Amino acid sequence: MYVIVNAAASADGKLSSRRREQIAISGADDFARVDRLRAESDAVAVGVGTVLADDPHLTVKDDELRAQRREDSRPANPARVVVDSSGRTPTDAAILDDAATTYLCLSEAAPVDRRMELAEEAELVTAGDDRVDLLRAFAALQEQGIEQLMVEGGGELIFSLFEAGLVDELRVFVGPTIIGGRDAPTLADGEGFVAKFPALDLEAVDRLDDGVVLTWRVDDR
Ligand SMILES: NC(=O)C1=CN([C@@H]2O[C@H](COP(=O)(O)OP(=O)(O)OC[C@H]3O[C@@H](n4cnc5c(N)ncnc54)[C@H](OP(=O)(O)O)[C@@H]3O)[C@@H](O)[C@H]2O)C=CC1
Ligand SMILES: Nc1nc(O)c(N)c(N[C@@H]2O[C@H](COP(=O)(O)O)[C@@H](O)[C@H]2O)n1
Asked: How does it assemble (predicted)?
């Protein structure tokens, strides 16, 4: 499986404010680039923190891109993936609607009643005891035919993916604003690295809207 992390950060590296509300950092051209990347991918993933904060839909917005996917004998939208150890995804979340298949990656810690409710709305993948074991979960997704996985965030999930050595490529739109705040989410949160920092190779720098898209390949992948 090829994993591309894509996110939008302010010039000071924040994905959102300390209120953890969704902020449009991208401009129209960057949102169009993100839509094309979604359309190219077999699935789009987020952590449950993003589901709870943003209630994202994660569908392809452009009609022509969806039509092209259908012509290519693919579903109109890529599958959606939520990494959610204890099954906190609300059953009325937009990501569970019928616009696409949704995989909920749970751990053994998810209560049985929650599993039963969520199984009505999504395909359940269980991996890990207390927290989702990302290596095992992604292996299970690959078995379902997901070859290119786009990850949109947030910072907790992105850090864990780097920690697990699962990221092949990182694309970041750096937008023309400062958000600030020591508690605001950044591109990679979690515990942070203190040694063996993942190394990146810069592949492209493209001006877009009033910002820049940085494309990095992860070394040793
Ligand atoms: N600008 C941008 O491009 C984007 C911005 N955002 C912003 O990011 C914020 C949300 O990010 P954040 O709070 O970091 O949440 P995440 O979306 O990264 O979700 C994190 C949660 O995922 C669950 N999880 C399960 N297994 C793992 C694992 N192995 N590793 C990591 N997490 C795991 C955990 O909850 P549990 O323990 O319950 O399983 C964890 O708290 C929001 O403010 C949102 O607006 C989000 C996406 C893109
Ligand atoms: N690429 C990008 N730029 C921004 O400025 C953003 N705020 C985000 N956020 C991500 O997009 C999700 C919303 O998707 P839908 O419009 O609901 O399909 C949101 O949850 C973040 O993952 N992305």
From this structure: Homodimer.
Residue 207's domain spans which residues?
2-218
The yes-or-no verdict on residue 220 having pLDDT over 80 is: no
Name the token pair of 110.
Answer: 């998810």
- Tens of pLDDT along 35-80? 999 999 999 999 999 999 999 999 999 999 999 999 999 999 999 9
* 3 state SS of 11: coil
ipTM over 0.90: yes
- The number of the ligand 1 atom at minimal distance from the alpha carbon of 50 is 17
Q: Which two tokens stand for residue 193?
A: 């690295």
Q: What CATH number does residue 152 fall under?
A: 3.40.430.10
Nearest CA to ligand 1 atom 45: 22
- Find, among 32, 17, 34, the residue nearest to 151 by Cα: 34
Count of domains forming the chain: 1
Which residue carries 């992604």 as its tokens?
138
End-to-end CA distance of the chain: 11
**The two three-digit tokens of residue 160, written as one number:** 């864990």
- Which bound ligand lies closest to the C-alpha atom of 211? 2
Is residue 178 classed as helix, strand or coil in its secondary structure? Answer: coil
Model pTM score: 0.98
In this structure, the chain runs to a length of: 221
| The residue type at 15 | L
